[in-house]
Amino acid sequence: MKVLIIGNEDRYKKYMPDPEIVRKYSVVFCPCEARDEDLLQAAQDADAIIIDAIARLSGTVIRQMPNLKIIQSEGVGYNGIDCQAAKEKGIYVCNCKGANAGAVAEQAILLMLALLRSTLTGDRLEREGRQMEMKQRLMVEGITELGDCKIGLIGFGDIAKATAKRLFPFACEIFYYDKYKASQELEAEYHVSFMELNDLISGCDIISIHCPATPETTEMVNAEFLAKMKPTAYLINTARGDIVDNQALHDAIVMGEIRGAGLDTVHPEPTTKDNILLNLPEECKEHIIFSPHIGGITTSFFRRAHLFNWGNVESALKGNHPQNIVNGL
What we know:
Helix content is 37%, strand content 15%.
């Protein structure tokens, strides 16, 4: 049987699980940017596809692969896969739900702390020999501890739960909004309280995005959303860049409608120098802290994910029902 891997060959080889699993298959690699015709030429007869979570797989390709039984996302995301085409062909699309939840939660909290502690400015001034200037300034302006903040989580899936779990020891108040209210038992387990979306946006000191990118959530964080936030509040996005309207966030920071933002994801990806969020006025540049979409790509995540990916593929190819099906089969 043949498995087509769409992604970085060096990474997939590094994290391949027990060779006994992999040795059963003929493995073909294609890069994320491969064209439809390249994919079909390389492995039109593939039985399974394992694909980078940010890569694209069109219905054109899916419909022309007669042996294909499963498309397995390396991570949580599957936005680039034509799930409807796969469903029409009876092909499972699966993701690696929850495997990077703890890793992304760590990144979200890192961004929160970095903003509260003025890390970018502090690092720059320290390197310029202006340490006392920064220290004196912050003693006057004040430094807010994370424990003094109300944290609002939008979405309450695996990553939001992992974030809440890690926030609790900081002694901050934690609120969440989701389309479906969690049970009292679950709220108690994660020390969170439900809050309606508008109340959460206007009442919390840090808003952290943890919902998927869907037509409903695309550019959800727009001018109207940002205008509801406190002028002292911060936005954290470790979910998907598409959820944020870049122009609206740029304007909100420049006009002082919010204090700043911590972004692990920026739309479009890859981020280019001309992105408006990278071109704030000089006096506002350090009001955004960026990380290069690394929240979920820890070594432990890749080990867990690749072990799961290959096990799920093997299950489907044996005729069994795989786990984490996302296209309704």
